[in-house]
Amino acid sequence: MIVLGIDTSCDDTSVALYDTDSETVLSEMVSSRMELHARYGGVVPEIAARQHLELLLPMIERVHEDAGVAPDPETIDLIAVTRGPGLIGGLLVGFSCAKALSLGWNVPFVGVNHIEGHLVSVSLSHQHVPYPHIAMIVSGGHSELYKAVSPVEYSLLGETRDDAAGELLDKTGRLLDVPFPAGRVIDEWTIKSNPDDSHPSFPRPLIDRENIEFSFSGLKTACLYFLRSDESRKYARETIGAEVLRSVVDCLLAKSLLACRRENLQTLVISGGVASSEYFRKTAEGFALENNLEVLFPEQRHCTDNASMIALAGWHRYRVNGADSYELDCEASLSVGEC
Asked: What ranges in the chain are assigned the alpha helix state H?
């Protein structure tokens, strides 16, 4: 079966073709126009939606050309499209396009939860991912831990009380005059830094509590007040940013370990945009060895938003529930398990 995947949930426009028989991505494209949003310090929904409208159909034609597959019902067996969560304008562009192609080609379509796409993205690069396992999604809008029973069944174990980890890094970037998005720059600073050198001391919120919850707003406030203090003049902004990321990763891994221990599971899957952090990945490898865990990440290109994960998640949903009705609508707020 060949699945056409479409993702327009935020600012990136992404299209992919996935072959379920060979379990391979035949072709994928992601168009990011971050320079259009950087001047505003964040994603502008109206600009993002207009870009999706301009780019989507040409990209669908391009992935078919790259894969050597004809864009017609003789070759496409299923269309999978992000239903939510995300920015409603962008979601409507992708969802409307998927429905139109489904009707025109007489091919079934299925709406996919964007977060479930991230949760299965590890299978794009790792065959035989064991179930059940603990799954952590870490991005600009989400910091959550799930017990993944199967590719279509998840139970929420814990989440952030306030800011998501990626949101904190972007806000820290603004405080340190780093252009949006700041995560990649802060990650580079952290990789180059020496944790044994003098650095500010930031809190690790909730790290010693026996609850599976995150809280990052206090860390943001601590950074803000530190930058207003005379002591901050002793440190370069690179040193400050690196310590913020170290604090975030310490909290994420501590709560992940707690979830693994409580559920008696040895496999931890980490996905989402923050999972592309080189520092996070290297630290998690050492953490896994120390705690006798198996930690799996998607390839870095599949940590950020992409349509390959939507195609894969859509196929899993289709196998279990069949095609969706054309009466289905996209939703800006959609919980995992709601499809």
From this structure: 34-38, 45-67, 88-105, 114-120, 165-175, 183-192, 217-228, 237-263, 278-290, 307-321
Coil, strand or helix at 233: helix
Task: Tell me which H or E stretch contains 73.
Answer: none
Give 199-256 pLDDT, tens digit per residue.
999 999 999 999 999 999 999 999 999 999 999 999 999 999 999 999 999 999 999 9
d(CA 260, CA 262): 6
Length of the chain as a residue count: 339
Phi/psi class of residue 337: alpha, beta or left (left: φ > 0; alpha: ψ in -120 to 50)? Answer: left
CA dist 10 and 306 (Å) reads: 11
Whole-model pTM: value is 0.94
* Cis preceding-peptide flag for 205 (omega within 30 of 0): no
Q: Do domains 2-120+304-321 and 127-297 have the same CATH topology?
A: yes
Nearest to 206 by CA among 222, 194, 218, 192: 218
- The domain made up of 2-120+304-321 has a fold known as Nucleotidyltransferase; domain 5 (3.30.420)
Could you tell me if 6 and 80 are in contact, meaning their C-beta atoms sit under 8 angstroms apart?
A: yes
3-state DSSP assignment of residue 179: coil
Cis peptide before 151 (omega within 30 of 0): no
The answer to whether 123 and 104 are in contact (CB under 8 A) is no
The structure tokens listed for 227 are: 């930058």
Distance (Å, whole) CA 19 – CA 76: 10
Q: What is the third-level CATH fold of 127-297? A: Nucleotidyltransferase; domain 5 (3.30.420)
- Say what angle helices 237-263 and 278-290 make with each other, to 10 degrees: 40
Largest CA distance in the chain: 68
Q: Is the Cα dihedral 158, 168, 292, 296 positive or negative?
A: positive
- The domain ranges of the chain are 2-120+304-321, 127-297
